[in-house]
Amino acid sequence: MYIGSKYDRSLKLFKLMKALYNQTIMKIINYFFLSMFLLTLGCSNHPKIERIELDSKLEKVATEAQEDTLEISRFTFCELIQRNDWDEVAILSPYIVAKQLENGGIKDYNQIFDDLETMNDSKCSFLFLQKKRVIAYSIINRGPINFSKPLVSIFYLNKVDCSRLKLKKMASGFDLLVDK
Fold this sequence. Notes:
Largest sheet: 5 strands, mixed
Strand content: 25-35%
Number of helices: 6
């Protein structure tokens, strides 16, 4: 009888340890899948950056300014943009590199950097920023209005500056002026 009871206690202890072991393994597996799910959810939480088409609107503005007799015309750039959730625009010169964007404090540009890299001398791009995060962008032809500044790779306009823009007639189109 004594051997049987010792055997019964060992069997019960073994079953208890096996149950605890199975519960621990299941907890580890559950935590693993839960963490993988949360990690995946967190990584896919970046909103898609909208591309805004501005070329046709800028061509219309340039045509109207060309017909105007004034050498310097007021330019309502802010009104061309349908979105209102940006706080500044970064105007990029052609051939911008990622390090220049990082040095400028611009974040979340990775989604669109391939588009920016394909630019050439005839293109200029705008990054619409909200707290230095890219929320929208536009790539335009530099033909009618030259937005790039010599020796400046990134030129910033806030909403106040945006409402003070003027176009100056040049021989090859228009140059952008900010009225302070």
